[in-house]
Each structure stands twice: as C-alpha cells, then as structure tokens.
Amino acid sequence: MPASNCETESGVTSAADAFADVSEGNRQFAASFTAASLTGYAARGLAIVTCMDSRIEPLKAVGLSAGDAKILRNAGARVTDDVLRTLILATHLLGVTRILVMPHTDCRMVGRREADVHAEILAASGVDTRSAEIRTVTDQELALREDVERVRAYPLLAAGVTVAGAVYDVRTGNLHFIA
Fold first, then answer.
1. Of residues 157 and 6, which shows the higher confidence score?
2. Are 39 and 95 a contacting pair, CB within 8 Å?
3. Which residues share a beta bridge with 164?
4. DSSP of 116-135, one letter per residue?
5. CA angle centred on 168, ends 164 and 172, rounded to 5°
6. pLDDT beyond 70 at 8
7. Looking at the structure, do residues 22 and 88 belong to the same domain, yes or no?
8. Is the pLDDT of residue 41 over 60?
9. For residue 4, what are the domain limits?
10. Do 157 and 173 belong to one domain?
C-alpha cells in the first residue's frame, strides 16, 4: 500500500495503516493454517541460498513444500559471512545435508558496478551508502562458482554436505546447474 494512502493529517503514517493489507492477508492465512505440525528441521535436507527478488518462489521452484528446506535470501544470492553462519546452524542442528546456491536471471545486482549502485541510491534518496557492501557482480557464472567453492571450503559446516550452484531463469522457471 503506497504511503500516500496511509498518511494522517499530520503526514505521519501509522504502522497499523501501512501494514493493513499484510494484517488482513495474515488473518486469511491463519484461518486455514495447517503447518502447525512442522518442525524446524529441513525434512528434505536442503538449504537454498537465493535472492530476495519477489519473482522467486524457492520451494515451488524445486518442487518442495513448507518444512522441506531452509531458505536464505539476500540481494544477489551471495554467500556472505551471515549466510555461512546460518549454514553452520542448518548443517549441524537442522538436518541440512545439501546446499543449493541459486541466483537468478535478470538480477539488478548483475552487470553493475558497486559504485554505480551507491550513486543511484544517493540520487534517489540522498543517503550515502558507500560504507555498506552491496556485492554486485560483473560475471554471474563466475560469482556463482566462487560462492559455491566458498561454501564447499568452509571448515565449520557439518562433514559430508553436498553443495551445488544453479541459475534460476525468471522467464521460464528452469534451473541451469553451473557448479
């Protein structure tokens, strides 16, 4: 819901107004909720590292359902220190034995220089974000191979974890395995 539809006379948007659609959607979801019996364990032993892009439905993309896998999302599907921290927990405590790093086609983090993204944010909002690492990539396939190798070489993951990398095509829904 656009902020302009939620502004009060003082020009301040209340959280209740700004999230009214989310609250109503949750009410409808909860009315037919059936996943109470699921645990935090990855039933199919899979963790997927993917992008935050809303065109991606990671579980559906690989034929799984709620409770089957752990989903880790960030801009560009990059293997960051926080992703590795989460994978430590997932592989030792939550049943993950396979990790799929899954960036996608038509990603805004691909083919752009980090400095250009910072400049774009500055122009759009006046906020200087140069102190934050955005992690753009010029070559998605190379970045994917490097990220997969970073996971494979990480010594704190449980032994025997299998790692792969595939690019999800947002136009066709197909996965193209690379690494």
1. 157
2. no
3. 100
4. HHHHHHHHHHS---TTS---
5. 145
6. no
7. no
8. yes
9. 1-33
10. yes
